[in-house]
Write a structure and sequence with these properties.
CATH architecture of chain A: 2-Layer Sandwich
Oligomer: heterodimer
CATH topology of chain A: Transcription Regulator spoIIAA
Largest interface: A-B, 52 and 52 residues
Largest sheet of chain A: 5 strands, mixed
Shape of chain A: globular
Structural class of chain B: alpha+beta
Radius of gyration of chain B: 20 Å
Number of domains of chain B: 1
Helix content of chain A: 25-40%
CATH class of chain A: Alpha Beta
Shape of chain B: globular
Order of helices and strands of chain B: HEEHEEEEEEHEH
CATH superfamily of chain B: START domain
Chain lengths: 116, 265
């Protein structure tokens, strides 16, 4: 299995919000990276995924996001996203992932939305 | 891989020197692999299958399903001589031919391409056929993914892929699913999961034989991703294609000369 070309950096906003900056290729192979970022985000009640640096995603990547969603739901964490291009937003809508992960247009609106 | 934390770490398009418009100007290289967005499925009737319970239905992912969420992986080592791209090309081109006898897959004549809708007749046992379908969500040279519509046994998708693992090629089918409604959930518990495991193991074995894999062996891994049932989706039962199939006449089958084969592409 190839090494995933992905970085996921975590920024915290107070105790309740964490933003994960995703840069690179999202495939099933990068699950350890995503779960590591999730662990770094810690016990926040809101987790926001920044897809502005997303370069590629296959169906395995969407499956991995579903797994993350389950983990977040189990911890009663709210999951949101921003920075999706039209193409990736359409994929979220096609797979109906947008019904569980709220999509915002920008980081500002995402932070406003999850804090509200 | 880097996993770093801190408020100074930023990765928006603006901060890596691209405006949002510039970032979207070049289509990502996966753009041709994904299906275009559809709200409801449209499909023409095809010979050899009943073709009900698909047109007008919405797609359902694991988020929309009812039962526990499972990830099941059926994996086969195919040796060093078969390239992953070749394995997937053969699988796409002859997909229905690898299905166990008694089940039918009527796809597009051009193979498996993003956005295609295939009609299925699946043997449930006792002579009952479930009429349903699948949507080709994603397809590239090393993988393809089918997603299910409302009323299918499960809400989710199946990804068929091949990859190099050391010196060998590994071929797999991976299902990420929830039973679509309480009736299906009961059915999965009472033998449905075992039946599905047999189905995909038999499919992979048939593919292995076609590819010339000597004595193909399929290894199955099952993981319960979420043990909670989503009771808010219990009403999915309204679309249950198994129940509907029982009351739908097999009207198309009399005119189908290909019905004696185990599949129909």
């Amino acid at each position: 299995m190839g090494v995933p070309e992905i970085t996921m950096d975590v920024r915290r906003f107070g105790d309740s919000v964490a933003v994960v900056d995703i840069k690179g290729e999202v495939t099933a192979a990068c699950e350890p990276v995503l779960m590591s970022a999730y662990e770094q985000a810690g016990a926040t009640s809101k987790l926001v995924l920044n897809f502005a640096g997303l370069e590629y995603m296959n169906s395995g990547g969407i499956g991995m996001l579903v797994t993350l969603l389950v983990r977040a739901n189990r911890q009663r964490q709210q999951l949101a996203a921003f920075g999706l291009s039209d193409h990736y937003r359409e994929i979220f809508e096609l797979t109906r992932l947008d019904e569980a992960i709220t999509i915002y247009d920008s980081e500002e609106s995402a932070l406003d939305g999850v804090v509200r | 891989m880097t996993d770093t934390a801190g408020p100074d770490k930023v990765a928006s398009a603006e901060q890596i020197g691209l405006s949002a418009r510039e970032a979207q100007a070049t289509p990502p290289r996966d753009s041709a692999s994904w299906a275009r967005k559809v709200d409801r499925l449209e499909v023409a009737q095809r010979d050899g299958v009943r073709g009900t319970n698909v047109a007008g239905r919405r797609l359902t992912g694991p988020v929309q399903g009812f039962g526990k969420m499972w990830q099941k992986t059926y994996r086969m080592q195919a040796g060093s001589q078969i390239a992953p791209e070749h394995a997937i090309a053969v699988w796409k081109e002859h997909f229905p031919e690898f299905w166990p006898k008694g089940n039918r897959f009527a796809g597009a004549l051009t193979g498996i391409n993003p956005g295609d809708v295939a009609l299925l007749d699946l043997a449930l046992g006792g002579g009952v056929k479930l009429s349903t379908g699948v949507f080709v969500l994603y397809a590239d040279q090393e993988s393809f993914t089918l997603m299910t519509p409302q009323g299918h046994m499960f809400a989710g998708w199946i990804t068929f892929s091949a990859e190099r693992e050391g010196d060998e090629t590994a071929i797999q089918a991976q299902v990420l699913m929830r039973a679509n409604d309480p009736l299906y959930e009961a059915g999965m518990i009472m033998g449905g999961h075992a039946k599905e495991d047999k189905f995909w193991a038999a499919t992979l074995t048939a593919l292995g034989q076609r590819l010339g894999v000597p004595d193909p062996k399929v290894h199955t891994t099952t993981t319960c991703v979420d043990s909670k049932r989503q009771w808010r989706h219990a009403r999915n039962i309204w679309h249950n294609s198994a129940v509907r199939s029982v009351f739908q006449p097999p009207r198309r089958r009399a005119s189908a000369p290909a019905q004696k084969s185990s599949s129909n592409g």
